[in-house]
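Subject: two folds for Thursday's group meeting

Dear M.,

Sorry for the delay on this. The cluster queue was jammed most of the week, so I only got both jobs back this morning. I'm pasting them in the order they finished. Each block is the input sequence followed by the predicted structure tokens. Could you check whether the formatting survives your parser before we put anything on slides? The first protein is the one we discussed after the seminar.
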Amino acid sequence: MTQLQTDIRNHRLVSGRFGTITFGKWGIEFSDRHSFATLTDTPRNATYTDGIWHISQGRWQTRLHTAQIDPTTITAHAQFTALDDAPLQDAVLRMVFDKHNIAHGEIAGKSYRHRDSDKYRLYPISDTRDVRLVGTDGSEIIITLDTFDGAGRFAPYLYLRDRGDHWIVHARLLPVDPVDHVWLRWANRFFTLSAPGPVARALWDMPGGQKMLWRLRERLGRHCPEIQAVPLNTVLAGQTLSLGVTCRFL
């Protein structure tokens, strides 16, 4: 039987191995219009002090608990509590797997090989309850989104993404309609241009606008210009968003 090995420190998965498949740097992410808070990458316009995240449009308290609960299973649970009334574009539990020795990934009944497309294959959990990664040796990793709470303003999604040398899986909370704000942006490595709020809202509300612009760059991948509409909803002070996933290694 293939052995699952994990290195979990302070409730965060640092690294792991299942046979020839390696994985690691799991954590949480969340963002508003101007800030990006993360435990696995470089935060932008965000600082973490005395257990509190300070981002541009509010303060947040987060909790992450990751554990190997049996020889073949890892669970992770995240909470995001607003300390101020604060707009939010998403809240994420992030899992990363090295692409080597993984033959393909599966989501919503579709199979994908790693092409470094950087496409966010994003589905609501009404369309898919799990993401699967299939090893070249026939082993299988199944990630399920088991629990969630969007405080009535956010809905749960799963996505599968092939980027660089990794497969990236997110359990993600995204705003539901009617949204409080729409951020229409064009970004590149030098600058970000944003449409005025009334213009962004008008384009969002026109027939077909939401379907066309909603997270356009994410859906089309790296060859699409960095143009997309990102909705935000306000989380009231004291409200908590949460996500819980189970990762089984078979």
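Second protein, same layout:
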Amino acid sequence: MTDDPFVAHRSLLFTVAYEMLGSAADAEDVVQESWLRWADVDQAQVRDPRAYLVRIVTRLALNRLRALARQREDYVGPWLPEPLLTSPDVAVDAELAENVSIAMLTVLETLGPAERAVFVLREVFDTPYDEIAEVVGKTPAAVRQIANRAREHVAARRPRMRVDRAQQQAAVEKFTAAVSTGDVQSLVEVLAPDVVVVADGGGQVAAARKPITGVEKVAAFLARAARVPDLAATTAWFNGTPGARIDIGGAATAVSPVVEDGRITRVYAIRNPNKLGRLDEVAELRR
């Protein structure tokens, strides 16, 4: 145990920043900057260190998100969040696992910066409206309105229903095995008819620059990929949900499927090597 509130809450602060930014590298920068701010504070005068630190991190992340907006507009192909290798223990907190999933972070990218901050603080971390108002510089009444709009926006775009974790893992394991062998029939069985693959290569490596839609096209695409020499596919946990790591000739791809009603409805494939630096280091996420 430690008496330093920053050290005690560091995992929480990283999780807040990562939820805001979808980038572990940017989240780490924000956490580091927040430590510098914290070091300059008369900590004896801080009544609630946890809330104070969350405010610092959220404000810094909000500024960083606004600065990154133009950069992401110019991104080559679809922009997907940076995946984090996590332990299955994260899934014990089902709400946290859902909110840090690649699928949810992708939805959060469709919110404006202030809306995202309000949604993350309220829906993920259950922050009181008056505290959120202080962070985003608005009245509590305005924050409530923003929260309602953001909640409706996210609800219309998030996966339609939660799935049993064992069912999800079984579907992902079947998918991973089918990709390993190029078994088209098994792929067709585990993929939903309207399945969509979204790939992020960032212009750094080969990747589809537009989503691939439909079970036949997706199964054929994945079967072709399986014929590449030296392909190895293994299951892994990314962002609190079952996924797959595919290695081809030393280049990794993090795959995060969305499972609904026992079938995979979306496949997020992150191939940009600049986003894959944490595939061998387990991240600690916390609320």
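Two things I noticed about the second structure. The chain has a mean pLDDT of 94. The first strand starts at residue 191 and ends at 200.

Cheers,
T.
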